[in-house]
Structure formats: structure tokens, C-alpha cells
């Protein structure tokens, strides 16, 4: 979608904000290839934090050595690579977990293993962009969620008036068109909008 938006705008580069629900490593990588700079938070899929243990974000990746540094200062080295869901995933761990004083807060098995996608540097760069713009997600919510709230208010607390997917799509498209026209009138004014539509 970001690539289509970039083409429609005729832009050389495009920065895109999205919420966590749109996260896909493969799509983030694809965005980088078409001149789109994505900014969205990574989903926190590990249950380690909820169980009071260290999460993956507590392990620092050292790119020049291709190793992870754990909270206790141990080095987790790459042991093997597997293919999962069509992606190459590298596995890292250390053999020094057994005597570690932080083991109870780190691993519930023999050792703590960290998984890293072969293109995770793209994800790390995206996270750095997000960290550099702490207000980005708040601004996205204020900008993007407002139209949905407005449309819901216009539609009332009811369901769609039509049935079947094609008719519901048409109904929703009309709501969005009306919203967009009202916004453009509010921003440009009716006369400049009519002139732009004629051009």
C-alpha cells in the first residue's frame, strides 16, 4: 500500500507510519527496496516479560561480531540457521547459562536462546527511527484514528445498511468519499476545491 501511495503522490521517497498490527518483517524489507521508509513498533511476541524474565530487547546485538550480549555480560554466539516460514532464522546462545546468577530471570530451560532473522538489521534501523521520534505514534493516532471516529459517529451506533460484501464496500466508499470532500472543503475552501477538481 505504501508503494502505491508513493506512486500516486509522485514522490521519490515516502515516510510511512503504521501501528503494530501492520508489522511484517518481509514487508518492512520490501518497503526499503521501493524507497519507502516505514516506522512502526515491533510486536512484543515473547511472553518472557510477562513471566518476569528478560525479553529479547534486554539482549544487545553486536553487529560487527555477530553476537548478542546478555544482561549478565555473557556472549551468545550464532550456533545454526534454520528456515521458518520461508525466512532464515539464526539461533544464538551461550553454554555458560548453568552457573549464571541471573538464570532464573532469563531462561526456564538449559540456556537462553535468541532468534534473529537474517534481515533483522532493517528492523533494528526502523526501531532506531521510531526511538528518535518518540511522538510519532501519538501523532499517527491523532491523525489516522480521527477519521474512523468521525465516520462511526456519522453512521451512528448501527451496522451497515446494506448486505453482501460488494454493497458494504460501496457504502463504506461513499462514507469515506463524503469525509474526504468535507475535509478538503474545510482545508481549501469550496471554490479552490472546485477549481482543483476541474483542472
Would you write up a description of this structure?
With 199 residues, the chain is of the alpha+beta class. It has a domain at 56-118. It has helices spanning 2-9, 25-33, 120-132, 136-155, 165-188, 190-198, and strands at 14-17, 36-39, 60-62, 67-69, 75-84, 87-93, 114-117. The strands form 2 sheets. A 5-stranded antiparallel sheet has the order 3-4-5-6-7, with no helix packed on it. A two-stranded parallel sheet has the order 1-2. It is elongated, with a radius of gyration of 23 Å. The two termini are 26 Å apart.
Distance between the termini: 26 Å
Number of helices: 6
Low-confidence stretches: none
Q: What is the count of β-strands? A: 7
Rounded mean pLDDT score = 88
Largest sheet: 5 strands, antiparallel
The helical percent reads 40-55%
Radius of gyration, CA atoms, in whole angstroms: 23 Å
Q: Which structural category do the helix and sheet elements fall into?
A: alpha+beta
- How much of the sequence is in beta strands? 15-25%
Element-by-element helix/strand order: HEHEEEEEEHHHH
Global shape = elongated
Strands ordered across the widest β-sheet = 3-4-5-6-7
Oligomer: single chain
What structural keywords apply?
5-stranded antiparallel β-sheet, 6 helices, 199 residues, elongated, alpha+beta, two-stranded parallel sheet
In short:
The mean pLDDT is 88.
Give the SSE layout.
Layout: H1 2-9, E1 14-17, H2 25-33, E2 36-39, E3 60-62, E4 67-69, E5 75-84, E6 87-93, E7 114-117, H3 120-132, H4 136-155, H5 165-188, H6 190-198
Parallel strand pairs: 1-2
Antiparallel strand pairs: 3-4, 4-5, 5-6, 6-7
Amino acid at each position: 500500500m505504501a508503494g502505491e501511495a508513493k506512486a500516486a503522490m509522485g514522490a521519490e521517497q515516502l515516510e510511512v507510519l503504521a501501528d503494530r498490527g501492520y508489522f511484517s518483517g518481509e514487508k518492512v524489507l520490501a518497503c526499503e527496496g521501493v524507497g519507502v521508509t516505514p516506522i512502526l513498533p515491533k510486536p512484543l511476541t515473547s511472553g518472557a516479560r510477562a513471566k518476569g524474565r528478560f525479553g529479547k530487547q534486554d539482549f544487545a546485538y553486536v553487529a560487527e561480531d555477530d553476537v548478542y550480549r546478555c544482561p549478565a555480560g555473557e556472549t551468545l554466539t550464532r550456533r545454526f540457521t534454520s528456515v521458518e516460514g520461508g525466512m532464515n532464522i539464526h539461533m544464538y546462545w551461550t553454554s555458560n547459562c548453568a552457573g549464571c546468577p541471573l538464570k532464573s530471570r532469563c531462561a526456564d530451560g538449559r540456556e537462553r536462546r535468541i532468534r534473529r532473522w537474517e534481515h533483522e538489521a532493517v528492523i533494528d534501523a526502523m526501531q532506531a527511527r521510531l526511538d528518535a521520534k518518540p511522538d510519532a505514534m501519538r501523532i499517527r493516532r491523532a491523525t489516522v484514528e480521527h477519521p474512523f471516529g468521525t465516520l462511526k459517529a456519522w453512521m451512528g451506533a448501527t451496522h451497515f445498511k446494506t448486505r453482501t460484501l460488494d454493497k458494504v464496500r460501496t457504502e463504506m466508499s461513499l462514507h469515506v468519499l463524503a469525509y474526504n470532500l468535507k475535509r478538503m472543503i474545510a482545508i481549501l475552501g469550496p471554490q479552490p476545491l472546485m477549481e482543483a477538481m476541474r483542472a
